[in-house]
Design goal:
Blueprint (H helix, E strand, L loop, with lengths): L1 H13 L5 H20 L9 H13 L4 H20 L13 H6 L7 H8 L7 H16 L3 H5 L6 E2 L4 E6 L2 E6 L2 H18 L19 H15 L7 H14 L4 H8 L4 H22 L7
Antiparallel strand pairs: 1-2, 2-3
Helix pairs in contact: 1-2, 2-4, 3-4, 7-9, 7-11, 11-13, 12-13
Length: 296
């Protein structure tokens, strides 16, 4: 990925028509895109329209403004024009992507039994499995973003009171953590973390097997591997678990405002998408379960 970035940076430097600010924006946005592709383990040459759309969806999930998302998409288009110019591709997968399309797309979620199946996969008798169990439980318990999860430090969770303090761009959110997740995190901290944490881990709550802080890419691969082991055929990312957290709370009576607070959404419209998702879910249950609806 670094080679693509370096080549694009050199190319932009040679384009005298671009201002310094424009070049910096293109490079910053392209780095965001390349990081996203790295998370899903593909290269820019392998990416297709669905992958570019996934990047746009990610920006929307992160509450980026329409202006910011449009600028990122323009940068990605420019990046692919460069690859075409270099003869590395013959088409631009970002060309037909519209920001408005992603706004209509409802997020993928897991049903309750699928969540339980996913959470049951890690082998907690091993350090890695114990860590992974704690991460998956904490993600589903709190609905935090993958980036927030890997940036957690040990003091950010109060095991006695069952509260997680999540430090995001908008400040600190206090989120309750259900008991079995507290048990999983406690087990990891007191029984296994010391076996894998090294000097580079510092106070990081979740560390990789080399002892340093876990990366987003590493966590994405962990989630994907357990989904495969569980036999779940849906396309699952850490954000799928975040979406599932929100929908399951809404299904059980939580208010949209409370969910917004826990998820750290700057705009309540980002949270209200789950209301539509709930409506669709209820409609599907009706179609599947009502005897008269089945008659077609």
């Amino acid at each position: 990925m670094h080679d693509f970035y370096s080549m694009f940076s050199e190319y932009l430097s040679e384009q005298k028509a671009n201002s310094n600010n424009t070049r910096e924006s293109y490079l910053r946005d392209t780095m965001n895109y390349l990081s996203y592709l790295s998370e899903i383990d593909i290269t820019p040459l392998e990416a297709d329209e669905r992958d570019v759309q996934g990047f746009v969806d990610r920006l929307q999930d992160l509450d980026r403004s329409p202006t910011t998302i449009s600028r990122n998409l323009a940068s990605v288009r420019c990046f692919y024009k460069f690859l075409i110019f270099q003869g590395m591709l013959d088409h631009n997968p970002a060309k037909g992507i519209k920001v408005g399309k992603a706004e209509k797309k409802l997020p993928q979620v897991l049903q309750g039994d699928e969540i339980e199946l996913l959470l049951s996969q890690p082998d907690i008798t091993e350090p890695k499995g114990c860590r992974d169990k704690a991460m998956l439980e904490l993600l589903y318990a709190t609905g935090i973003r993958a980036s927030e999860l890997i940036n957690l430090d040990i003091p950010d969770i109060n095991l006695r009171s069952g509260v997680l303090y999540c430090r995001g761009n908008k400040g600190v959110r206090s989120i309750p953590v259900y008991p079995s997740a507290i048990v999983a995190v406690s087990d990891y901290i007191y029984r296994m973390r010391g076996l894998i944490a090294g000097p580079d881990g510092g106070s990081a709550l979740f560390v990789n097997l080399n002892g340093g802080r876990l990366t987003r890419q590493g966590f994405w691969k962990i989630v994907k591997s357990y989904a495969v082991e569980a036999g779940i055929t849906k396309e699952i990312t850490p954000h799928t678990i975040r979406h599932s957290f929100a929908l399951h709370l809404l299904e059980n009576g939580a208010s949209v405002k409370d969910i917004q607070t826990m998820m750290g959404h700057a705009d309540i419209s980002s949270t209200q998408v789950y209301v539509q998702l709930l409506d669709n879910h209820v409609r599907q249950v009706y179609q599947d379960c009502h005897p008269k609806a089945k008659l077609g």
